[in-house]
Amino acid sequence: MKKRLGIGFIGSGFITRFHIQSFIGVRDADVLGVWSPNKQNAESAAALARRIRVGDCQAFNSIEEMIASPGIDAIWLCGPNHKRIENLEAIVKAIKSGKSGKGKLTGIAVEKPLARNAAEAKRVIELIEESGLLHGYLEDQLFEPPVVRGREILWRRAAPLTGRPYLARCAEEHSGPHNPWFWQGELGGGGVLNDMMCHSVEVARLLLTDPAKTRDSIKPVKVSATIASLKWSRPEYADLLRQTMGNEVDYRTRPSEDFARATINYVDDAGNPLIAEVTTSWSYVGAGLRLTSELLGPEYSLSINSLDTSLKLFLSRRVQGASGEDLVEKQNAEQGLMPVVASEATEYGYEAENRFFVNCFLDGKQPEVNCYDGLEVTQLLMTAYKSAEEERTIAFDPKAIENFIPAVARGTWKP
Ligand SMILES: NC(=O)c1ccc[n+]([C@@H]2O[C@H](COP(=O)([O-])OP(=O)(O)OC[C@H]3O[C@@H](n4cnc5c(N)ncnc54)[C@H](O)[C@@H]3O)[C@@H](O)[C@H]2O)c1
User: What is the pLDDT of residues 45-61, one digit of tens each?
Assistant: First the structure.
């Protein structure tokens, strides 16, 4: 059995850089490669990995070349949503062609969302199965230290004495994503619902699931959802968005939702009804990214707010520096009383997430958080879009949304 895992990244943008930083807290892996169509960005991400000493990393000229490199044991797939299938096809082709080192890779970890819709998610599964690799679904928020710790304590101390929890509320909100493709429904697969509700759905589900049981011990029954464009299709904000993101992002004519909520009814293996309430928005202006979770049971509750930080800075009006994201992800201000997330890669779960997948791959063990989970999340999100479009509660039935493409992703949504 290998003692260290050599990792190659596909994509060299925002999330790859976050992952690379998190590897400071992962003992048994080295970040050895990055491929991205923009060589300069790939070089810059590789230089970051070398600078912070998480691996002797190099930028590769192609996916095939990276997979053929003897040090690379696993791929972290972190390209944009609309390139997921193309990237996976290239990986599978490279694995199958002898010269790229057939059978040499151990595993692949795929960023959220698994795909843009259920049909694409099924194609991801087909390709993963064809590859024969171990696979992980990169859902960092399942590994957030307060989520993991809070769940462990409540399920150990409170649930056995007074009964299981019944209601989870999870939200992720910020003021909007950093690159144009996220804002274009066709490329992202939708708006904030596809981009961020995948996180909240999984955190709520995790909190409601007995740690001694498997994920399928609670089953989704029905979904009711709403989507809206609350801020970014207002004319002044649509114009601002076009100025900052480019002409292809035109929310006067082709908006995506910047708000989404869903209620998912679950039932557990004893027939108890459970509820997950999830909310996401790109129309929240606070200090920066805000992740909140609550778990309610008969005699207890839990609450988490990522902006309730132990570190806060006060900067007077005379401190007039350049805008940045050095205090908190998706930061909106540089003055006044500002919360600082001291170690974001740890707090948002990336560090524990990467430690978990590295250990699974080194042990030759299929991770419990894997692409089949990503498929089910996609099916839930598509049911939510359908519910929002039809303005009714919809029974969870993966067959019914097999070929469903949200109107936002088709560019036909009229809020
Ligand atoms: N877990 C999280 O919280 C989280 C946060 C942000 C993004 N993400 C996910 O990570 C993925 C990447 O998002 P990001 O924020 O890094 O985006 P980004 O726009 O910052 O970076 C995308 C990267 O992909 C590269 N790219 C462009 N075309 C490509 C292609 N054909 N194949 C491979 N790579 C290509 C770009 O050059 C860039 O380096 C998305 O699926 C996104 O949903 C997850």
Answer: 999 999 999 999 999 99
Judge whether 287 lies within some domain: yes
Question: pTM here?
Answer: 0.97
Cα–Cα distance list, 38 to 13, 65, 110, 163 (Å): 10, 15, 20, 53
Q: Structurally, how many domains does the chain consist of? A: 2
Range of the domain at 116: 5-140+351-369
> Ligand 1 mean position to 298 CA, how many Å?
41
Ligand 1 pocket check for 359: Cβ under 6 Å: no
Ligand 1 pocket member 87 (CB < 6 A): yes
- Indicate whether 156 and 262 sit together in one domain: yes
Give me the CATH number covering residue 186: 3.30.360.10
356 lies in some domain: yes
245 Cβ inside 6 Å of ligand 1: no
* Alpha-carbon span 248 to 327, nearest angstrom: 30
Residue nearest to atom 21 of ligand 1 (CA): 13
Q: To test ligand 1's pocket by mutation, which of 14, 20, 85, 110 has the most ligand atoms within 8 angstroms of CB?
A: 14
Is 415 a domain residue?
A: no
**pLDDT tens readout for residues 280-299:** 999 999 999 999 999 999 99
d(CA 268, CA 209): 8
Q: Can you tell me the distance from the alpha carbon of 104 to that of 207, in angstroms, rounded to the nearest whole number? A: 36
CB 197 within 8 A of CB 377: no
Both 98 and 170 in one domain: the answer is no
Compute, in angstroms, the gap from residue 413 CA to the centroid of ligand 1: 24
Are 217 and 233 contained in the same domain?
yes
